[in-house]
Amino acid sequence: MENKTLENIQKTAFQFFQDFTNFDEKSTGYGLTIDHTNNLESASIAATGFMLSSLIIGDKYGYINHEKALHQARKTLFTLYHHAENQYGFYAHYFDVRSGQRRGKCEYSTIDTALALCGIIAVDSYFKDDEISKLSQLILERVDWAEFIFEKDHKKLLHMSYNPDKDGAYALGKAGLIHQWDMFAEQLMMYVIIGGGKDRDQAYELYQGFDRDKRKYDKYEYFISPGNTLFNYQFPLAWLDLKNYLDDQNISWFENAKIATLAHQKCSIDHQGAFKTFSKYFFGFNASDTPIGYRVFSALPNKLNELKTDGTVAPFSMIGSLPFTPEESMLSIDKMLEIKNLWGKYGFYDAFNLEDEQPWISNRYIAIDKGLEMLMVNAVLTKDVQNAFMRHKVIIKGLETLCWVKK
Description:
The chain is α+β, with helices and mostly antiparallel strands. The chain has helices at 2-19, 45-61, 66-82, 110-127, 130-142, 188-195, 203-209, 231-234, 253-270, 315-319, 326-336, 367-381, 384-391, 393-401; strands spanning 33-36, 39-44, 86-87, 90-91, 94-96, 108-109, 149-152, 155-163, 176-180, 213-217, 220-224, 245-246, 287-288, 295-296, 343-344, 347-348, 352-353, 360-361, 405-406. The protein contains 14 helices and 19 strands.
């Protein structure tokens, strides 16, 4: 019964990516996946990375014909190399889903590009197809990480994004490179990818360059992100299987994610008097849809030491933690299935809030949240995507460069 439930989450997520990706053969935006279902014009480069990964699962489980999956992967990579707008090889965060042109004045994002690269690396490893391998290599080599690397306070750091428009997203009135990864957050996979490529000589210093802020909540001690938002621990490990890896300081990022999840659960339980949605089943402070739109929440402890929530819980908080906390997450899934109208055509909707007499259920699906659910379910079922990703020469080399070793 447990596996059947998980396979259903996986299969409905796969179907989401089939139904909300542009597969118009004549379109220059072929293969681009929408950001969320309430705006069918805007595609997300990160969502496209999840879509590519879904093709591995679809092929393995027979959700899609092998030749069709292969065709979709090939043609999407063609789009990503020839049509999708980029600067220094970094993709725009959002695209027009039909043309592949940058949408508005959004930033060119390192993290969203990295999520796409994870999908590209996974399909390259899995399909072992000459055309996919050629395009993958061209895309990976085009990314100019060196352009984003700089030194600050005797540390080597990586800028977060670039915007040529001073009035564009995150630019704050000044065109150019924006902020830096000087903290632990969702960027771990970037150092591995850099470590396996042409800029590998700088990867180790970059990995050592971000702050490790270790805090304690109740009995749980772990490295936190500044906002202590749960996706920071989940997204890096959707493709990167670090369960049995330690870095040269004996840090296990897998174990850190597990402790963070349990701490989020405890923080939710501790505040269930103020927010009645919270319980041992419904937990996690994440970034999701809410009754007043998309918001990013923070668990304690965090940099500002302020709890940030309105009691909204996102299903991907629990499902996305399946590899770390399988028993707790399965209990959560079973309880969520009892909530009326939370499950739809593509699985659980993005979020729910039970604070008012009339429960609020999100009416949309957000692609990266649905993608995380799909990959984390697959990670506990058969590891098709993670196994492919970890076999790729870029990842093998990257892990060696960072001095991460198996326990």
